[in-house]
Amino acid sequence: MNKRARMRLIGVTAIIIIAIGAALYGLQPRVAAYETVAQIAKDGLKPGTRVQVGGAVVAGSWNKQSNPMIFTIRDENDTAGTGPTIKVTYQGAAPNTFGDGVVAIVTGAIESKSDVKADTMITKCPSKYQSAVGAIPVAELSAGQSLVGKKGLQTTGYVKPGSLGPASAVQRFVLAEKADGSGKSVAIKYAGALPETVKDGVQVVVTGTLTSNEAFDATAVALSQGQK
Predict the structure, then answer these.
(1) Same domain, yes or no, for 168 and 219?
(2) Which of 115, 145, 158, 173 is 20 to 30 Å from 200 by CA-CA measure?
């Protein structure tokens, strides 16, 4: 191979390498800048801008049956509930920890000043602990029909393995008498945020109301003190 042909080959090879590199770069996901709800409301980002935004899920803003899931978030430090909000449209399965008040961190594209179409979502919720002392064991709860309809009941038991579901499910999980799921049990309905540490076999303390069909409408779920 003469010098001219060799130089031509080197040049063609360099062009191919550059082209492949450019194509691979184009396939890389676009980096999303993290924004707060307040920042997005203030900045007025252009539609199509890719962002990552986090905020607390506004209670009652989402529908269990909607597909895609639509919900509203506000800055987690906005305890007064007077600040701006963002409507999130999310096509995908919500994490088991999703629920009222949980901090949802979504990534997607701005659709308008107060709307984001998200393709990914993660949640974070600090662990909550409650003493099981004084709480009614689930074995006694399911048998105590005189307790039906009484508000503010506290019951304790174990999360039945395999029963955990998303907040959109009619039954969030089953509270069982024993850690392996055996013994008496009751179905727990709960739309709130579950800490990530709530998992199969852990002991929890549930506050709420026992209904007539031996299901429990919960208003709060906490880990029993001593759980990790």
Answers:
(1) yes
(2) 145
